[in-house]
Amino acid sequence: MESESNVSIIFRQLSSNQLYDILEHHGATKNETKAIFLMRDLSAGLITVSYYSREHEMVQHLRLGLTEDGWKTVPKPPKEPFFTATLEVKTKYIQDKAKFDKQMQIFFNTAKTLLNENATPKHLQSLGHELRNNKFQKDGLIRPSPMQASQERHYFDYLSNLLLNEDTPSPAKSIVS
């Protein structure tokens, strides 16, 4: 049997029910928001951090994408105007949304290209940095079993032993402190 340290910390794609069951099984619904979380494969160069929000009483998600500067939070689309908004506000939204859609296509293409170039120590470090910036702690990370782990070959270097040593500037570096 594979040791936990040789299993990617990224889950494969999960259904909503599987996701909720895993979070609930690990006590996410009984703990503070973001205290328990998991990372899962979304698509090439994109992962989703999923956690239970006590404030909203539901599973919430943070999407991360690989950029030239490492893992970053995926930009959020412009907020849709209310039905009663003026024509001017609705027109601006349509323009902003079209611009956002073009930027997101570039973002997704970049993420996919960078992922295909394989993980670097910089990428691994940036994932930990992004998680810390969003108030996630390493103790709350749910690690998948070998059967639950992503089979995306590019995530094979994202191992649970990466969480152990913050000072090593290599793929064995801690990603969450």
Shape: globular
Strands across the major sheet, in which order?
1-2-3-4-5
For the sheet with most strands, the description reads:
5 strands, mixed
- As for the number of domains, it is 1
Gyration radius (Cα, Å) is 18 Å
- The structure class reads alpha+beta
- What is the arithmetic mean of pLDDT? 82
Q: What letter string, H or E per element, gives the SSE order?
A: EHEEEEHH
The stretches of 5 or more residues where confidence is low (pLDDT under 50) are: 163-177
Counting DSSP H or I runs of 4 or more residues, the number of helices is 3
Find the count of extended strands (DSSP E, 2+ residues): 5
Descriptive account of the structure:
It is a single chain. By secondary structure, the protein is an alpha+beta fold. It has one domain. Helix content is 30%, strand content 18%. It contains three helices and five strands. It has helices at residues 16-25, 87-116, 121-133, and strands at residues 10-11, 37-43, 46-53, 58-67, 70-73. Strand 1 (10-11), helix 1 and strand 2 (37-43) form a beta-alpha-beta unit. The longest helix has 30 residues, at 87-116. The radius of gyration is 18 Å and the shape is globular. Mean pLDDT is 82; it is low at 163-177.
